[in-house]
Amino acid sequence: MTDKELIEQIARVKKEKNAVILAHYYQVPEIQDIADYVGDSLQLSQLAAATNADIIVFAGVHFMAETAKILSPGKKVLLPDLEAGCSLASSAPAGQFAAFVNAHPDHKVVTYINCTAEVKALSDVIVTSSNALKIVESFPKEQKLIFAPDKNLGAYINGKTGRDMLLWDGACEVHETISTKRIINLKMQNPDALLVAHPECKAPVLIMADFIGSTAAMLKFTQQSDSKKFIVATETGIIHQMEKLSPGKEFLVVPADETCACNDCPYMKLNTLEKLYLCMVHEKPEIILSAELIEKAKLPIMKMLELSKNL
Ligand code: 13P
Ligand code: SF4
Known about the structure:
Elements: H1 3-16, E1 19-24, H2 29-34, E2 37-39, H3 41-50, E3 55-59, H4 62-71, E4 76-78, H5 87-90, H6 94-102, E5 107-112, H7 117-121, E6 125-127, H8 132-137, E7 144-148, H9 151-161, E8 166-167, H10 173-176, H11 180-189, E9 194-197, H12 203-208, E10 211-212, H13 215-224, E11 229-233, H14 238-245, E12 250-253, H15 273-282, H16 291-307
Parallel strand pairs: 1-2, 1-3, 3-4, 5-6, 5-7, 7-8, 9-10, 9-11, 11-12
Bound molecules: 1,3-dihydroxyacetonephosphate and iron/sulfur cluster.
């Protein structure tokens, strides 16, 4: 099938089956363009919790589809490629995390949404890069906190709030490779460009940034800014929406290193139009979770949604 035929067939099956397609900003442009909604982790969780569709097709990675299933357990949740994992989620195996949490009984557990359902079930509250600062600040200053699994986001929040959260030693392989050397080269060639960065980047990158925020926040910043040029320190998928929403502005990708042309998340980029179509036709791969796990993991996610109203 040509891409045009695939797009027509996806639209047909979607209507027949009353499905909704949710896509993360890091998906390839052709998937973003056929999705019903494109968003960041928080927006997609809110949409998954509120949808009337019978089937949620999650064009993203495994932890996102799992979160959708936890929030809408009565719906069928499909992930086009079950191999679409996340290096950050994998950096916190549930068994090791449980031991860490048990070793610090006086700490509350604040966990970034990029983690497995089992790790969510061990947490007091889930956060995303959109709401992490606000949610951490909702705890009394004297409350001891564990922050997991992203040490870069955790360190960034510690710096912003003056807290000393205990950080799990995890990181995103895509954001970790974004180098200051490459940014400096781009800055030298484009002195008029502003640097926007995702808080999963390492501290030396964040120190240089003109704006730090989630994918949705970066998108909004580039739309509202008077600047005409931006260096974008995150996964490349976001550039598609930036160009769509701010025609006439220029967006420069920070190359990951000498051997890599771009910062593509290898997991996000596993999804293709073909896989999307096939998963909708066959209604698999499907996310299946036990009722017990759903019940435990739902509490900290619902707490996040409650604390994120008006964001
Ligand atoms: P946000 O969608 O919260 O910006 O997170 C980015 C990310 O790395 C998702 O995996
Ligand atoms: Fe995970 Fe990083 Fe890919 Fe996001 S960009 S899904 S954090 S590996």
